[in-house]
Design goal:
single chain; 213 residues; alpha+beta; 11 strands; VC0802-like; 30% strand
Length: 213
């Protein structure tokens, strides 16, 4: 199969690991070619002997629309002007073992509801976003970089009660404000003002190891 400049570029980037937006190339995309609107299907099946696309547009006939392998790259493609938005489809992949397997599109953007598993041709070009208010509110979000995290860690923490309360009490006694708390089975962490970090570490140490004073 003759390869276009676009196919060549995507193929090279794909194999070089530099194809950052593969979803814009692979999958099912509604396009216009030679003044005819249809759907371009592309799927990567490097070990397949043959691939065809089947779906509502060909009454699920496995032999109706065989795909072409671009220069032996394993990238199979076909353009169908009778396929359209909303139709279900799958790829019929014949492996090197000669067995035919029906596969959903790994780059499909829409799919049937379970228990059905077919992909669906779908475009969101006409989708109207309704997040303008959220976008405005997002600009008002503030953050504080002048904070520090102080943690106590111990494998036996899970079986020893009162560790967190002892830590919080030590900080309270030094009048250190806790902004956030996170915990796990072996760790308790607090977020505090950056300028309180040294004082917090000493307060916690002295609370747990008073004999070292």
């Amino acid at each position: 199969m003759a390869i276009s400049k676009m196919d060549k570029m995507f193929k090279e980037n794909f194999y070089n690991g530099t194809l950052e937006q593969g979803y814009n190339y692979f999958g099912a995309h509604i396009e216009t070619r030679c003044r005819k609107k249809g759907v371009m299907f592309r799927v990567w099946a490097p070990n397949a002997d043959a691939v065809s696309v089947v779906g509502d547009f060909n009454e699920w006939n496995k032999e109706a629309h065989p795909m072409k392998n671009i220069e032996g790259s394993g990238i199979w493609t076909i353009f169908l002007n009778n396929a359209k938005h909303g139709q279900a489809y799958k790829y019929n992949v014949i492996g090197c073992d000669g067995i035919s397997r029906m596969k959903s599109d790994p780059y499909g953007v829409f799919a049937e509801k379970r228990p059905n598993t077919a992909s669906i041709i779908y475009t969101n070009d006409n989708y109207k976003w309704n997040d303008r208010k959220w976008q405005r509110e997002k600009q008002k979000i503030v953050h504080d970089e002048n904070v520090a995290k102080v943690s106590i860690v111990g494998a036996g923490m899970e079986t020893h009660a009162g560790v967190a309360s002892t830590m919080f009490e030590a900080l309270y006694d030094r009048q250190i404000n806790i902004q956030m708390i996170s915990t796990s089975e072996i760790k308790v962490s607090v977020l505090i003002d950056e300028h309180d970090a040294d004082s917090a570490v000493k307060a916690i140490h002295d609370k747990f190891f008073p004999e070292n004073d």
